[in-house]
Amino acid sequence: MFKNYTKILRTPKVAAAFALFAFGAANSQVATFPWTETFEDTSPTRELWTQIYEVNNMSWTFATAPSTGGSGVTAYQGSKMANYPATSHNFDKTKLVSPVLDLSNMATATLSFHYRNPLWNPDQNWLRIFYRTSAESPWVQISEFHSNVGAWTSSGNIDLPTPSATYQIAVECETDYGYSTTVDALVIETTSLSVAEKNTLTARFYPNPASDRVFFSANDEIGTIAIYNQLGQKVSVQNLGLNHGSIDVSQLAPGYYILKADSQKGTFSYKLIKN
Protein backbone atom coordinates (compact mmCIF):
# COMPACT_ATOMS: atom_id res chain seq x y z
CA MET A 1 0.00 0.00 0.00
CA PHE A 2 1.45 3.37 -1.03
CA LYS A 3 1.08 6.25 1.32
CA ASN A 4 -0.24 9.56 0.03
CA TYR A 5 2.00 12.22 1.59
CA THR A 6 -0.23 15.11 0.52
CA LYS A 7 -0.91 16.93 3.78
CA ILE A 8 -4.33 18.25 4.72
CA LEU A 9 -4.50 21.59 6.51
CA ARG A 10 -5.15 21.14 10.25
CA THR A 11 -8.37 23.09 10.28
CA PRO A 12 -10.90 21.82 12.86
CA LYS A 13 -13.97 20.41 11.21
CA VAL A 14 -17.18 21.41 12.94
CA ALA A 15 -19.93 18.82 12.64
CA ALA A 16 -23.59 19.63 12.96
CA ALA A 17 -23.89 16.71 15.36
CA PHE A 18 -21.87 13.68 16.36
CA ALA A 19 -23.05 10.17 15.58
CA LEU A 20 -23.45 7.43 18.15
CA PHE A 21 -23.36 3.84 17.03
CA ALA A 22 -24.62 1.45 19.71
CA PHE A 23 -23.66 -2.22 19.81
CA GLY A 24 -25.91 -3.06 22.78
CA ALA A 25 -28.27 -1.79 25.43
CA ALA A 26 -27.21 1.58 26.81
CA ASN A 27 -28.25 0.73 30.35
CA SER A 28 -26.25 -2.50 30.63
CA GLN A 29 -23.76 -2.60 33.47
CA VAL A 30 -20.54 -4.28 34.51
CA ALA A 31 -20.57 -4.73 38.27
CA THR A 32 -18.07 -7.56 38.86
CA PHE A 33 -14.38 -6.70 39.07
CA PRO A 34 -11.67 -7.14 38.02
CA TRP A 35 -13.24 -6.91 34.58
CA THR A 36 -11.27 -7.79 31.44
CA GLU A 37 -12.32 -6.90 27.90
CA THR A 38 -10.65 -9.26 25.44
CA PHE A 39 -12.43 -7.96 22.30
CA GLU A 40 -12.84 -11.59 21.22
CA ASP A 41 -15.98 -12.83 19.45
CA THR A 42 -16.73 -14.80 22.62
CA SER A 43 -16.48 -11.76 24.92
CA PRO A 44 -19.84 -11.31 26.74
CA THR A 45 -19.38 -7.52 26.88
CA ARG A 46 -17.88 -6.65 23.49
CA GLU A 47 -21.28 -5.99 21.94
CA LEU A 48 -22.00 -3.42 24.68
CA TRP A 49 -19.24 -1.05 23.52
CA THR A 50 -20.41 1.97 21.54
CA GLN A 51 -18.73 4.48 19.25
CA ILE A 52 -18.91 8.26 19.28
CA TYR A 53 -17.72 9.88 16.06
CA GLU A 54 -16.15 13.18 17.09
CA VAL A 55 -14.65 14.01 13.68
CA ASN A 56 -15.78 12.19 10.49
CA ASN A 57 -17.00 8.59 10.74
CA MET A 58 -14.00 6.24 10.87
CA SER A 59 -14.92 3.22 13.01
CA TRP A 60 -13.01 1.08 15.44
CA THR A 61 -13.08 -2.58 14.37
CA PHE A 62 -12.44 -5.84 16.20
CA ALA A 63 -9.79 -7.41 14.01
CA THR A 64 -7.19 -10.19 13.89
CA ALA A 65 -4.56 -7.81 12.47
CA PRO A 66 -4.01 -4.04 12.21
CA SER A 67 -5.36 -2.38 9.06
CA THR A 68 -1.89 -0.97 8.26
CA GLY A 69 1.61 -1.44 9.65
CA GLY A 70 0.79 -4.84 11.08
CA SER A 71 2.71 -7.40 9.06
CA GLY A 72 3.07 -10.42 11.34
CA VAL A 73 1.31 -8.66 14.25
CA THR A 74 -1.31 -10.65 16.13
CA ALA A 75 -3.50 -9.78 19.12
CA TYR A 76 -1.77 -9.35 22.46
CA GLN A 77 -4.05 -12.07 23.84
CA GLY A 78 -6.35 -14.40 21.95
CA SER A 79 -7.03 -13.68 18.29
CA LYS A 80 -8.72 -10.25 18.17
CA MET A 81 -7.98 -6.68 19.17
CA ALA A 82 -9.61 -3.25 18.95
CA ASN A 83 -8.22 -1.65 15.78
CA TYR A 84 -8.47 1.97 14.63
CA PRO A 85 -7.62 1.98 10.87
CA ALA A 86 -6.20 5.56 10.80
CA THR A 87 -6.08 5.43 7.00
CA SER A 88 -6.38 9.15 6.27
CA HIS A 89 -4.89 12.59 6.89
CA ASN A 90 -8.32 13.93 7.85
CA PHE A 91 -7.72 13.86 11.62
CA ASP A 92 -10.60 11.44 12.09
CA LYS A 93 -11.41 11.09 15.78
CA THR A 94 -13.59 8.38 17.32
CA LYS A 95 -14.24 7.28 20.89
CA LEU A 96 -14.70 3.59 21.66
CA VAL A 97 -16.95 3.76 24.74
CA SER A 98 -17.18 1.06 27.40
CA PRO A 99 -20.36 -0.43 28.83
CA VAL A 100 -21.69 1.31 31.95
CA LEU A 101 -19.56 0.36 34.96
CA ASP A 102 -20.99 0.27 38.47
CA LEU A 103 -18.13 1.64 40.60
CA SER A 104 -20.39 3.12 43.27
CA ASN A 105 -19.04 0.94 46.09
CA MET A 106 -15.39 1.28 45.14
CA ALA A 107 -12.67 3.11 47.05
CA THR A 108 -10.29 3.01 44.07
CA ALA A 109 -10.42 1.96 40.44
CA THR A 110 -7.63 1.61 37.88
CA LEU A 111 -7.52 0.96 34.15
CA SER A 112 -4.76 -0.80 32.21
CA PHE A 113 -4.41 -2.21 28.70
CA HIS A 114 -1.84 -3.09 26.06
CA TYR A 115 -1.49 -0.99 22.92
CA ARG A 116 0.45 -0.28 19.74
CA ASN A 117 0.69 3.17 18.15
CA PRO A 118 3.32 2.92 15.40
CA LEU A 119 4.79 5.92 13.59
CA TRP A 120 4.33 5.99 9.82
CA ASN A 121 7.12 8.44 9.23
CA PRO A 122 6.59 11.33 9.71
CA ASP A 123 3.03 10.86 11.04
CA GLN A 124 1.87 9.79 14.49
CA ASN A 125 -1.66 9.14 15.80
CA TRP A 126 -2.97 10.23 19.21
CA LEU A 127 -4.40 7.65 21.62
CA ARG A 128 -6.33 9.20 24.52
CA ILE A 129 -8.25 7.89 27.53
CA PHE A 130 -11.35 9.62 28.92
CA TYR A 131 -13.90 8.98 31.65
CA ARG A 132 -17.35 10.29 32.52
CA THR A 133 -19.46 9.66 35.61
CA SER A 134 -22.79 9.46 33.73
CA ALA A 135 -24.20 9.77 30.22
CA GLU A 136 -25.05 13.42 30.97
CA SER A 137 -21.57 14.29 32.32
CA PRO A 138 -18.77 15.73 30.17
CA TRP A 139 -15.87 13.56 29.09
CA VAL A 140 -12.64 14.22 31.02
CA GLN A 141 -9.27 13.26 29.54
CA ILE A 142 -6.96 11.42 31.94
CA SER A 143 -4.19 10.06 29.71
CA GLU A 144 -2.60 10.51 26.28
CA PHE A 145 -0.16 8.44 24.23
CA HIS A 146 1.51 10.17 21.29
CA SER A 147 4.80 8.38 20.69
CA ASN A 148 6.09 5.63 18.41
CA VAL A 149 5.10 2.29 19.98
CA GLY A 150 5.55 -0.56 17.51
CA ALA A 151 5.41 -3.56 19.87
CA TRP A 152 2.66 -4.40 22.33
CA THR A 153 3.25 -2.22 25.41
CA SER A 154 1.43 -1.87 28.73
CA SER A 155 -0.28 1.42 29.49
CA GLY A 156 0.50 0.96 33.18
CA ASN A 157 -2.17 1.57 35.79
CA ILE A 158 -4.29 4.66 35.13
CA ASP A 159 -6.32 5.96 38.09
CA LEU A 160 -10.04 6.37 37.40
CA PRO A 161 -11.25 9.40 39.40
CA THR A 162 -14.65 9.88 41.02
CA PRO A 163 -16.18 6.37 40.89
CA SER A 164 -19.94 6.30 40.30
CA ALA A 165 -22.74 3.83 39.55
CA THR A 166 -22.92 5.00 35.91
CA TYR A 167 -19.24 5.24 35.02
CA GLN A 168 -17.78 4.87 31.53
CA ILE A 169 -14.33 5.04 30.02
CA ALA A 170 -13.52 5.84 26.39
CA VAL A 171 -10.53 4.87 24.28
CA GLU A 172 -10.16 7.59 21.65
CA CYS A 173 -7.91 7.68 18.62
CA GLU A 174 -7.22 10.72 16.44
CA THR A 175 -5.48 9.87 13.22
CA ASP A 176 -2.68 11.72 11.47
CA TYR A 177 -2.15 8.82 9.06
CA GLY A 178 0.15 6.96 11.40
CA TYR A 179 -0.02 3.20 11.17
CA SER A 180 -3.15 1.70 12.70
CA THR A 181 -3.54 2.06 16.48
CA THR A 182 -4.53 -1.10 18.36
CA VAL A 183 -5.66 -1.87 21.93
CA ASP A 184 -6.10 -5.23 23.67
CA ALA A 185 -6.53 -6.90 27.08
CA LEU A 186 -8.22 -3.96 28.78
CA VAL A 187 -8.62 -4.45 32.54
CA ILE A 188 -10.42 -2.46 35.23
CA GLU A 189 -9.50 -3.36 38.82
CA THR A 190 -11.11 -2.00 41.97
CA THR A 191 -10.88 -1.90 45.75
CA SER A 192 -14.19 -1.98 47.61
CA LEU A 193 -15.16 0.35 50.42
CA SER A 194 -15.53 -1.34 53.79
CA VAL A 195 -18.42 -0.44 56.11
CA ALA A 196 -16.03 1.66 58.20
CA GLU A 197 -14.76 3.49 55.12
CA LYS A 198 -18.30 4.36 54.05
CA ASN A 199 -18.69 6.29 57.30
CA THR A 200 -15.20 7.82 57.16
CA LEU A 201 -13.85 10.43 54.79
CA THR A 202 -11.65 8.83 52.13
CA ALA A 203 -10.07 10.81 49.33
CA ARG A 204 -7.62 10.53 46.46
CA PHE A 205 -5.24 13.26 45.34
CA TYR A 206 -3.22 13.25 42.10
CA PRO A 207 -0.74 13.80 40.58
CA ASN A 208 2.04 13.52 43.13
CA PRO A 209 4.50 15.22 42.72
CA ALA A 210 2.47 18.19 41.44
CA SER A 211 3.40 21.46 39.75
CA ASP A 212 0.29 23.57 39.18
CA ARG A 213 -2.91 21.80 40.23
CA VAL A 214 -3.81 18.85 42.43
CA PHE A 215 -6.99 16.94 41.56
CA PHE A 216 -9.09 15.16 44.17
CA SER A 217 -12.09 12.89 44.54
CA ALA A 218 -13.74 11.87 47.82
CA ASN A 219 -16.63 9.85 49.22
CA ASP A 220 -18.12 12.96 50.83
CA GLU A 221 -18.39 16.67 50.09
CA ILE A 222 -15.13 18.34 51.11
CA GLY A 223 -15.71 21.71 52.76
CA THR A 224 -12.11 22.92 52.93
CA ILE A 225 -8.60 21.79 52.09
CA ALA A 226 -5.85 23.30 54.24
CA ILE A 227 -2.19 23.07 53.26
CA TYR A 228 0.60 22.95 55.86
CA ASN A 229 4.37 23.24 55.28
CA GLN A 230 7.06 21.10 56.94
CA LEU A 231 7.07 23.41 59.98
CA GLY A 232 3.36 22.78 60.55
CA GLN A 233 2.42 26.27 59.43
CA LYS A 234 -0.84 26.69 57.54
CA VAL A 235 0.06 28.28 54.20
CA SER A 236 -3.25 27.99 52.35
CA VAL A 237 -6.94 27.27 52.89
CA GLN A 238 -9.31 26.66 49.99
CA ASN A 239 -13.09 26.54 50.46
CA LEU A 240 -14.69 23.98 48.18
CA GLY A 241 -17.97 22.22 48.97
CA LEU A 242 -17.21 19.56 46.33
CA ASN A 243 -16.80 15.79 46.07
CA HIS A 244 -14.28 16.17 43.28
CA GLY A 245 -12.34 18.96 41.64
CA SER A 246 -8.89 20.53 41.86
CA ILE A 247 -6.91 23.04 43.90
CA ASP A 248 -4.21 25.48 42.79
CA VAL A 249 -0.74 24.80 44.22
CA SER A 250 1.25 26.79 41.67
CA GLN A 251 2.22 29.47 44.21
CA LEU A 252 3.74 27.01 46.68
CA ALA A 253 7.51 26.76 46.93
CA PRO A 254 9.00 23.35 46.02
CA GLY A 255 9.00 20.94 48.95
CA TYR A 256 6.84 18.69 51.12
CA TYR A 257 3.36 19.65 52.33
CA ILE A 258 0.45 18.10 54.21
CA LEU A 259 -3.04 18.52 52.74
CA LYS A 260 -5.92 18.21 55.21
CA ALA A 261 -9.39 17.79 53.75
CA ASP A 262 -12.39 18.33 56.04
CA SER A 263 -15.94 17.04 55.60
CA GLN A 264 -18.86 15.97 57.77
CA LYS A 265 -17.33 12.47 57.82
CA GLY A 266 -14.08 13.73 59.30
CA THR A 267 -10.57 14.77 58.19
CA PHE A 268 -8.30 13.14 55.63
CA SER A 269 -4.56 13.95 55.50
CA TYR A 270 -2.30 13.56 52.48
CA LYS A 271 1.44 14.12 51.99
CA LEU A 272 2.19 16.12 48.81
CA ILE A 273 5.45 16.81 47.02
CA LYS A 274 5.46 20.15 45.18
CA ASN A 275 7.83 20.42 42.22
Question: Would you give an account of this structure?
Answer:
The chain has one helix and 20 strands. The N and C termini lie far apart (48 Å). It is 1% helix and 49% strand. It has one helix at residues 195-198; strands spanning 19-22, 29-30, 35-37, 50-55, 61-63, 81-84, 93-97, 100-101, 106-117, 126-132, 140-145, 149-154, 158-159, 168-174, 181-192, 203-206, 213-228, 234-248, 255-263, 266-274. By secondary structure, it is mainly beta. It is globular, with a radius of gyration of 21 Å.
List the defining traits of the structure above:
275 residues, mainly beta, disordered N terminus
Number of strands: 20
Main beta sheet:
7 strands, antiparallel
The coarse silhouette is globular
Instruction: Give the termini separation.
Output: 48 Å
What is the radius of gyration?
21 Å
Query: Which percent band covers the strand fraction?
Result: over 45%
Mean pLDDT: 87
Q: Could you name the ranges where pLDDT drops below 50 across 5 or more consecutive residues?
A: 1-26
Q: Helix tally?
A: 1
Helix content: under 10%
Structural class: mainly beta
Q: Could you spell the SSE succession in H and E letters?
A: EEEEEEEEEEEEEEEHEEEEE
